[in-house]
Amino acid sequence: MVLVQTAMENSEQKAKTAETLLEIRNLKTYFKINGSIVKAVDNVSLKIINGEILGLIGETGCGKSVLGLSILRLLPENAKIEGNLLFRGKEILSLSKAEMRKLRGKEIVLIPQNPSTSLNPLMQIGCQVLEAVIRHHNLKKSEAVSKVLDLFSKLKLQEPPRKFRDFPHQLSGGMKQRVLMAMGVACNPKLIIVDEPTKGLDAVLRIEVVRMLKETASAAGTSMLLITHDFSVAAALAHRIAVMYAGEIVEMGKTAAVLRNPRHPYTAGLLNSLPGKGFNPIPGSSPSIISLPEGCRFHPRCSRANMKCTASHPELVKLNDDHFVRCFNVCF
User: Comparing 59-73, 140-154, 209-223, which segment has the lowest mean pLDDT?
Assistant: First the structure.
């Protein structure tokens, strides 16, 4: 619960400016699989402003990772994407493939969830980071090497020159995570998409990764989309939280407000399922996104559901200042 307590202080902070960095409007990412339509991301709208960390929370399969890949346009051929993705006012979906390649890795980067499979096992880690630096910066090789060593030092990779020559199998899980962080921040991006940064890590490493992410965002003024299933991680880092269920945003607001007073029954259920809250799991399981229930998608698992919930689909409505919820029977 240390991270959650830290969050109550951290989430009160405001982003550095009110200028919008990324605006997503009515985003739909569908997949056609064996004749069925999979609505992985369904009519999602949100904003990330400069210097802000937005936590995207949800169970496995809710569509949060697909949302991150949609922003980068890293989707398989059977994907269909609609809506608007505005980055610094420019429509991402209108960019050519060459323009997207320039954008990825330089202005928007992805730090994937599994460092062990994300690094080339046959290549020295320093060379892997060096490759990213050279690709996006007009630097001599000696200058690029110095930049990589400086990054390793800042991320507390001990003995940077020796670590530069190490291969991935010689590093611990925490060290590999640091290398991915170095690759992510090497080009001074405006937005970092971090996918499940603490998945599979023990408690000590989780705290260490949270610290690294916090320091990285603070030092560079970088915005982040933090994709996670772990409330404690989002609580420790995020200014705002968006809760996703079955392809939709069901609640979104300032971190402290969402944690202290969740308004959607699903958010409340997730929080009540935490060990510190008595470990009371939400009954049932998430619906198949191939065959979604009529009405509210959460109603089969919701103790507050009534006839309206089974017949009508709720819209995401504004409750107050910066708090939105998709529910007919809001929790109070």
Answer: 209-223
Residue 26 CB-half CA count within 13 A: 3
Q: Give residue-wise pLDDT tens across range 84-107.
A: 999 999 999 999 999 999 899 889
CA pseudo-torsion sign 14, 17, 21, 26 = positive
Which one of 118-132, 135-149, 191-205 scores highest in mean pLDDT? 118-132
Query: How far is C-alpha 278 from the geometric centre of its chain's CA atoms?
Result: 27
- State the distance between the two ends of the chain, measured CA to CA, in whole angstroms: 24
- The Cα–Cα gap between 130 and 119 comes to 13
Distance CA 262, CA 242 (A): 11
Strands 20-33 and 53-57: unpaired
Note the maximum CA span of the chain: 68
Residue 241 is given by DSSP the state E
Alpha helices in the chain (DSSP H): 2-10, 64-72, 97-103, 115-118, 125-136, 141-154, 160-165, 173-185, 203-220, 231-237, 255-260, 265-272, 307-311
Rounded to whole angstroms, the Cα distance separating 49 from 227 reads 16
DSSP string, 24-88: EEEEEEEEEETTEEEEEEEEEEEEEETT-EEEEE--TTSSHHHHHHHHHT---TTEEEEEEEEET
Measured CA to CA, the distance from residue 68 to residue 91 in angstroms comes to 16
Fold of 2-107+189-325: Rossmann fold (3.40.50)
pTM: 0.88
Q: Where in the chain is the domain with CATH 3.40.50.300?
A: 2-107+189-325
Closest by Cα among 219, 313, 310, 230 to 274: 230
